[in-house]
Amino acid sequence: MIESLLVANRGEIARRIIRTAKRLGIRAIAVHSEADADLPFVVEADEAVCVGPANPALSYRNVEAILAAAESTGAQAIHPGYGFLSENADFARTVQARGLVWVGPGADAITAMGDKINARNLMAAAGVPVAPGTTEPATDLDAAVAAATEIGYPVMVKAAAGGGGMGMAVAADEAALRTEYDKVRAFAERMFGDGSVLIERYFPRVRHVEVQILGLADGRVVALGERECSVQRRNQKLVEESPSPAVSPELRARFLAAAVRAGEAVGYRNAGTVECLLDPATQEFFFLEMNTRLQVEHPVTELVYGVDLVEEQLRVAAGLPPTFDPDALTPRGHAIELRINAEDPKRFLPGPGVIGTWVEPTGEGVRVDSGYVAGNTVTPFYDSLLAKLVVTGADRAEAIERARTAVAGFAVAGPKNNLPFFAELLTNGEFVSGDYDTGIVGRMR
């Protein structure tokens, strides 16, 4: 097993990775910006190195500063968490070139899946269903209009190099496409350094379902069930649950088989997620993208399958077999994750500030993965995620009831937070029924 691990991330996920590393007897090394010096992940690490100012480009995305920290602390491996450098193929290659262990998929897999058009084409060739869309970038507005006419409106205009729900817009007709194309292209160039645009069929009523895969050290790819991620704002997830209330045993088998094929098509190793869109009317699903990293919502899979995905990541990176029998994976119960963000519960706009009160709920079936404690400052420099409230129950009804109690018992004062939204959602008839889609938040507002 790896003996020392540098966590190239911050907040909740850094704290989460450090917790597993220390349980396994691995020396945990944190890197942090000047703004994060007093956060729990820094305090809880065995060693911590400041890698720059608050600006993430000068700290958490500063490759040379992070590698220098690894060298100065004698780190054997680097875990990138999610966001920042986690899906940067050049960083992965550089880590390995410096003689360090990269806790993630190979750089070639990251590259292959990083471009949405290339990923769609690879998946189609592997027999994974893909939605109607372009097989090459729409290089100009005329090409985008021609593609949309062939595909049929409405269409989704997407940054080919995008991710995390960013760089996307819906065009209901040609006039809207002419407006949105230039916006998405400019955003893509600014955010991702790549202005390539993909045109894809847009489904007005759709569910977002994803499959957790794990590429093992022996070359096998296994699927650890699906997660429902349809509660979203601005195409970004707020709630995830497993198993999905929309997926029958027959559909689940098709989902998992397609996800394994997707992983095998790129020789995938380590943890990854195959994201799909599900048409609830026809029960057809289509490949959306593959996230070549650990997901924010990984705890729901951990709780349903009884595994520690961070530990499994470390074992794969070290060339070790998994702790579980890949041929005898058995899900138990139901898990729901709520993303507690520093944002107002109506318009979901960021609301940073000093945390005056922070009281986490406890009780049977309640887990809180948090990045902060009372007295910490939530700054405007990073993602607004404060914590992940994850609940389990014998079934979905029990999980929802425990979630209601946990939300009521979660006290946060100082920064704005979206706990009131979750209190509303957990009593919403559409959500409680399980028959909801990606438009549910809009209908609540």
From TrEMBL:
Entry annotated with the keyword Transferase: no
Top-level taxonomic group: Bacteria
Organism: Micromonospora humida
Keywords: ATP-binding, Biotin, Ligase, Nucleotide-binding
Ranges where the Biotin carboxylation domain occurs: 1-445
InterPro entries listed in its UniProt record: ATP-grasp, BC-like_N, Biotin_carboxylase_complex, Biotin_carboxylation_dom, Biotin_COase_C, CPAse_ATP-bd, PreATP-grasp_dom_sf, Rudment_hybrid_motif
Pfam families: Biotin_carb_C, Biotin_carb_N, CPSase_L_D2
Name of protein: biotin carboxylase
SUPFAM superfamilies: Glutathione synthetase ATP-binding domain-like (SSF56059), PreATP-grasp domain (SSF52440), Rudiment single hybrid motif (SSF51246)
Domain ATP-grasp: 120-318
Enzyme nomenclature, EC number: 6.3.4.14
